[in-house]
Amino acid sequence: SEGDFNMLAALVDYIRRHQKGEGIVGVSHQYGEQVSVDIALFKGLRVGGHPNPMLEEKRPTIPGGAAGLIAHKAACKARVQAELGLEIDAGAVLISFVGRWAFEKGIDLIAEAVLAVLEAYSNVQFYVVGPIGDEAGQYAATRLCALSRVEPLNKRLFVRAEFFRVTEEMRFAADFTICPSRTEPFGYVDVEYAWHGCPTIGNLVGGLGKVPGVYYQILEPGDHRHVLGQLLRAIDVALSMDAPTLVAAVREINALSAPAKIDACVQTDARDQAAGPCVTPPCNGRWLAWPSTRR
Predict the structure, then answer these.
(1) Of 83, 110, 127, 266, which has the fewest CB atoms closer than 10 Å, so is most exposed?
(2) For residue range 19-46, what is the model confidence (pLDDT) as tens digits?
(3) HSE-up (13 A, CA, CB side) for residue 273
(4) Which of 28, 180, 185, 164 is nearest to 102 (CA)?
(5) Cα(77)–Cα(176) distance, rounded to whole angstroms?
(6) What are the pLDDT digits (tens) for 60-87?
């Protein structure tokens, strides 16, 4: 907390005085680097990072092994579409959001982006599930639940603003998962979905960026139009990928031993904010994309 009473202040002061500033560790390398810059309490300290790995034994089993991944995802998509009441369409792009419906998770952005994407792309479907966490979540629930009852959107949008059991089939069925978090110390959803052959569309903040996907940066956090625009551009980049590129990415993502620190390519000129949407060349077998900041 950065308020008047900060329970961490005494501990950080002790570490400064008696440990020469050494000994503070975040839940991911990326988050450790971020808080030492963004949070005044940690200024001047080196905040380390714990790898906080997903256990390999939690990796899902794919019928037929890696060679059967694409066929398995297609079969799961058909079953999930039927179970969720979505139109059964093998060519549909199914996008997921799973998490707490709170401002820090970007649920207000999703509430606005969903309608824009459904109107712009006739082949896109969404499932958005998770418990309400704050007033932004309540706003999103009101908006998205109303949209999910409107025909024909009800055949392309499944919404549950509550704790909802996300099955293995739902993860395999998804083509992309959205993580527009404003803050994200580590993030498990992106890894879980990656192991099911699903790339991430997300904000490159904190612990996000561990797995290949389409990422964006926020230059003006207080500018809602800018933040929403970056998310929509990232979705546009993802949906513009041709089938061979996406299939190759799905196979690559599923094979990851996650998480891994963001590759050095994240720091390259691929973040040129004046350029149009771009996909970086593979970096240690990884790919990342950034949308332009232009409107």
Answers:
(1) 83
(2) 888 888 877 777 777 777 778 888 888 8
(3) 8
(4) 180
(5) 12
(6) 888 877 788 899 999 999 999 999 999 9
